[in-house]
What does this fold into?
Amino acid sequence: MVDGKKESDTRFDIASITVNSQTILENIDSYSEIKEGSVVEIAMPQFVVQSYPVMSAAVKLTVISNGEIGVRGTVKNIEQGKDGITFLVEGKKESDTRFDIASITVNSQTILENIDLYSEIKEGSIVEVVMPEYVVMTYPVMSAAIKLKVIK
It folds into this structure.
């Protein structure tokens, strides 16, 4: 099951997807590497089973992120940009996070959980951020957020 949101370049918000030997895989070697919580992009044929959710085989599956939490912590120093916001997330490196501090950019492409708009993110909020595998390796690391969950 792929659960997302309908955007200008997508046809559906949710779909039941079958991955088989004909599916083209990007950023992974085998479909067994797909984990629950992964952020994926699915290319489907023009015709699908029109149910809710729609059902289809995947023509192409691109893994954007494996769903691992990059950083969890407190939002600080929010800066408004032209197409989004950038802020620091300061926390602790834990067993389920990759970094203790990160400079994060959130925009209209970011999947938001527990809020509707990125403008609802406030200084002092506690968030966890899923980022791409590859980030700008500075200290703090810099990355766009693939998914942001507001915890508190």
About this structure: The mean pLDDT is 91. The CA atoms of residues 15 and 93 lie 35 Å apart. The chain has two domains: 2-65, 69-150. The domain at 69-150 is CATH 2.40.50.140 (OB fold (Dihydrolipoamide Acetyltransferase, E2P)).
